[in-house]
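Quiz preparation item.
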């Protein structure tokens, strides 16, 4: 083997062979998280359609369907098109669809694949009328809550809308809701109980052999499990959690049901963003070449997980004392680090490894994401297909 062949064969290391900044996923965390979540839904007798809008990476969605997920959830018809084009033909559009082009696209799916199942939500007479113009499309009636997001504002209104949808010729498949916007699991549990009661009332309108109740969110799905424990035998509960595969170091780490119920399993933060220190212009301040275009910040600023002194593969990771190296601000392409006297030295050329809060708003900043082994060598590159 020639030296050149050897160079090509050796795995690349994220610090020596990759342009920074870069977003990475830890393979061992992905594998563990996918298994933990699938085991959870199977243990509780649920179906799972992970929300692909989190990452819009077909390779990640395929991991979960290969483990037994029913299909995928998306947030728009554009995302449904991307999922369909990558071979996913069981799709829940967890949103209302009123645009004619989107409804026409959904209507054509069964012509292309008789086994396809592409559902969407309705929450108004206008939505029912728009959908009915395109034939007997399969719909879920969405029930929300006062002050929340979409959805009719009471279970009674949901039942009335389901009757209207059935009368208009739509295929009513069940009911859907979203508990993630509520402040905690107790409020979520009460809300889901009301949605379940509406589901029972809608069952006579469902022509399929089983009625579907879909709930979403990665924070309070334990409350969903509690609330639907006494559901009728012919009701399938479909969870839509999207963040469980990658997890995070902030928003969901603070809210995950697995923290409240550790006996059910444990999720690991798979996402890291790596950036090099470019300046340390004054004591207690360092600038890293990572910014708003590279990392999420809508649900909290990034957190420093490690410093790699020297910034090469030979550097041993240093874990700062909590609070000693803190992100205080992000510009478009700069991250401001405030360091305390007990912090490890942070100098130009070092690499800082960040964890994120809210995975949904970091993936959309990257067209390619690296998958790393535990030794930080590159195992794979996955593509995202945001539209």
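Solution:
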């Amino acid at each position: 083997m020639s030296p050149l062949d050897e160079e090509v064969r050796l795995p690349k290391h994220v610090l020596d062979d990759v342009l920074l900044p870069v977003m990475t996923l830890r393979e061992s965390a992905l594998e563990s998280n996918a298994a933990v979540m699938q085991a959870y839904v199977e243990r509780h007798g649920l179906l799972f359609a992970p929300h692909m809008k989190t990452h819009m990476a077909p390779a990640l969605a395929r991991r979960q369907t290969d483990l037994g997920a029913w299909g995928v959830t998306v947030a728009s018809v554009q995302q449904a098109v991307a999922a369909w084009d990558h071979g996913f033909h069981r799709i829940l559009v967890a949103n209302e669809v009123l645009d004619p082009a989107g409804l026409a696209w959904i209507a054509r799916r069964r012509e292309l694949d008789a086994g396809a199942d592409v559902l969407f939500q309705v929450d108004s007479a206008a939505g029912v009328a728009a959908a009915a113009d395109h034939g007997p499309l399969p719909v879920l009636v969405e029930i929300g809550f006062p002050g929340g997001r979409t959805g009719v504002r009471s279970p009674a209104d949901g039942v009335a809308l389901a009757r209207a949808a059935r009368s208009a010729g739509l295929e009513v498949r069940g009911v859907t809701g979203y508990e993630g916007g509520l402040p905690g699991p107790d409020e979520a549990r009460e809300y889901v109980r009301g949605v379940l009661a509406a589901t029972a009332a809608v069952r006579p309108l469902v022509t399929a052999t089983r009625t579907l109740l879909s709930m979403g969110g990665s924070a309070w799905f334990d409350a969903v499990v509690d609330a639907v424990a006494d559901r009728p035998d012919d009701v399938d509960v479909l969870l839509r959690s999207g963040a469980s595969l990658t997890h995070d170091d902030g928003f969901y780490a603070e809210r995950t049901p697995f923290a409240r119920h550790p006996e059910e399993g444990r999720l690991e933060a798979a996402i890291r963003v790596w950036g090099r220190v470019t300046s340390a212009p004054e004591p207690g301040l360092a600038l890293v070449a990572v910014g708003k275009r590279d990392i999420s910040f809508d649900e909290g600023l990034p957190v420093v997980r490690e410093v790699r002194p020297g910034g090469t593969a030979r550097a041993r990771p240093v874990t700062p004392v909590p609070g000693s190296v803190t992100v205080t601000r992000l510009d478009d392409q700069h991250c401001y680090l405030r360091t305390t006297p007990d912090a490890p030295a942070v100098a130009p050329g070092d690499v800082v490894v960040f964890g994120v809060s809210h995975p949904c708003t970091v993936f959309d900043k990257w067209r390619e994401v690296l998958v790393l082994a535990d030794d930080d060598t590159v195992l794979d590159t996955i593509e995202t297909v945001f539209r």
